[in-house]
Amino acid sequence: MINREKLSALYAREQETFAERNPKSKAAYQNANHLFGKVPMTWMNKKAGGFPIYFDRAVGNRIWDIDGHEYIDFALGDTGAMAGHSAPAVVDAITNQVKDKGGLTVMLPTEDAEWVARNLTERFGMTKWSFSLTATDANRWAIRLVRAITGKPKILFNAYCYHGSVDEALIVVGPDGEGMSRPGNVGSPVDVTMTSRVAEFNDLEGLERQLKNGDVAAVLMEPALTNIGIVLPEPGYLAGVRELTRKYDALLIIDETHTFSAGYGGMTKRDGLQPDVFVIGKAIAGGIPTGTYGLSETFAEKVLSRTDLDLVDMGGVGGTLAGNPLQVAAMRATLEHVLTEDNFKYMIDLATVFTDGVDELFTRYNLPWSINQLGARAEYRFAKPYPKNGTDAYESADAELEDFLHLYLVNRGILLTPFHNMALMCPTTTLADVEKHNAVFEDAIKELVG
Ligand code: PMP
Q: Is 313 helix (H, G, I), strand (E, B) or coil?
């Protein structure tokens, strides 16, 4: 379908354009000698153009780089900036905390924390909340708690899930149908099969086979996979997971760090999910580092009744800066004023325009690709129909094609998420922005298959 020679030539042309357009970013990268991998985080090397564009400033859904180019930002910090960059209400709250009130990290609670927890309860239904600085940490602590309460050693994940840098989660389904270490896993403390089990998303039989072993403390999952495309649950799948976890006495941890895009209360509220533990991070503090986990009433009571567990001192649930006044003020502002019911509706409507437009292009140009939408986010994959589990989604990746499309868009002022073909809407994204994306995307397709 795709002429690979043509693709390579087009990609080379876009790389040349990128280098010419971005001399300052190129020089900054060339001159970076003290950073491990030349960038502050090694994953910033995920760059289609040979070097990253360097950030200058941002507001709403716009980013400017140090070469002066303006971008429509559909990456939005891979969800961390779903509220838009520097949303005015968040800026006011942060400025007030920094300048007027003072005190950025104090090891004391603020009254806002209870407001935030109440709002999280209204959205996601869990009754007790605790804060962390990242969703990774929230997941790690959730894992400790479920192990402590069930006395069982293993956590079950979906293949090709991502829940942050959580050792237990780096497991995929091997050729024999059992778990094996995800290729490339860095420095795992023990063989991952000692701590974890794995089943494909949308595979209730595989899940039951694993749960039957009786050693699974909890299933930790996203209600739709979002880190390997957007793999949506088949009808009945999530209800089936809940039924099987109850049948085999395993708890259910739902991580809605990304699937929050589904709406005001994420998929949990929208689809009536009933987790025992709920994890969310990224977007809910408007860009300030955050994470939280919520416990159901029953599970919270079980944890609190265990007086042998050291929940106050060094028992393993820590984070000196977690719940600091700045983080909590940012969460309150974001939840109260930015990620509101009305704004979600607006963002979801725009994502539908994005999705329908891209879908129409795939049909018109007869491409064997497909796009899925989850509320305010949409992501296409080079397969049709859209893959139904993580391994199939992984296998549908096409690195060169993805890099070409990303770079084509970047060279014309549009940013997609670097690890994905994902576009996310924020409250300041406009219809014109979506239309511009769809027009430029069509130009790229025309060059490729025209
Ligand atoms: N959970 C999910 C579902 C995620 O997608 C991610 C990050 N992409 C995380 C957790 C980890 O978030 P953080 O990087 O804030 O720790």
A: coil
Residue 70: count other Cβ atoms within 10 Å of its Cβ: 11
Q: What is the pLDDT of residue 314?
A: 75
pTM greater than the 0.85 cutoff: yes
Continuous H helices in 261-379? 266-270, 297-305, 325-333, 341-364
271 and 188 inside one domain: yes
**Cβ proximity of 407 and 415 under 8 Å:** no
Distance 377 CA to ligand 1 centre (A): 16
Query: Domain of 389: which CATH number?
Result: 3.90.1150.10
Cβ distance 329 to 94 under 8 Å? yes
Which amino acids bring their CB within 6 angstroms of ligand 1?
78, 134-136, 162-164, 222, 227, 255, 257-258, 281-282
What are the phi and psi torsion angles at 163 (to 5°)?
-130, 30
Instruction: Please say whether the beta carbons of 391 and 201 come within 8 A.
Output: no
Q: What's the number of domains the chain is made of?
A: 2
Beta bridge partners of residue 381, listed in sequence order: 370
- Give the pLDDT confidence of 228-260 residue by residue, as tens digits: 999 999 999 999 999 999 999 999 999 999 999
Q: Which domain holds residue 34?
A: 4-82+340-449
